[in-house]
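Lay summary. Proteins are chains of building blocks that fold into shapes, and those shapes determine what they do. In this project we predict the shape from the chain. Here is one chain we studied, written as its sequence of building blocks.
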Amino acid sequence: MKRSLFIDIGHSAIKWRVADSVVVTQSIEGFSADSLPQCTSVWVSYVAHSGIVETIKKKYSSLVIIRTPAEYKTLSVAYPIPNELGVDRFLAMLGAQKHHPNKNLLIIDIGSALTVDVVAETGKHQGGLIMPGLVALRSSFEKFATNSDLKGFSGLQNATKAAWLGGTESMLVSSIKSQIDDFLDRYTNSKVILTGGGAKETASVLNVDIEIYDNLVLDGIECYAETSS
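And here is the predicted shape, written in a compact code that computers can read:
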């Protein structure tokens, strides 16, 4: 019986699942290939840590590394050089289409970086943006630098550390709100989708109709695996 494994290797963590089973997450530092289950086929997306990919290759005889194509089924990539578009963004768009076919889509991934992509209901990617994530923002000015990812610092603050945490959080949220407002002004028959580690907390302060998917890249990998033959 065929059993497929889907693996998403990000900057700071690795996620995997077998079909629609529970998602397992390990940090990059704590990852061991021995943790992965035995499967007949393996589908991998990675944006960093090629050495980990080589380790995984040794464990399986059948392994597919997904690359960003110019076109794939329902999705046409806007980049003239497709492999310059991170495969995680390609797969997140594919996963979003799986959940919401024939809609105009805004996909916002709130992780180590903040990425924004728009896909028209025709399936044509309209392009996207990449911005620093919250921790990167908070590390950007040496005088106030911190690796804190704490949220909830809304409004004016009366201490320097809190003012820096609140200011950087406000920058991130304001950027996201701006992209959502612009998208909703331009498109009807639309859906705003958030994913990534910061999605749920951010959604709570946006006051718009949003769908949250915890593992949109894995959804895209599974969709790719199901439709690639």
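What the prediction tells us: The chain has six helices and twelve strands.
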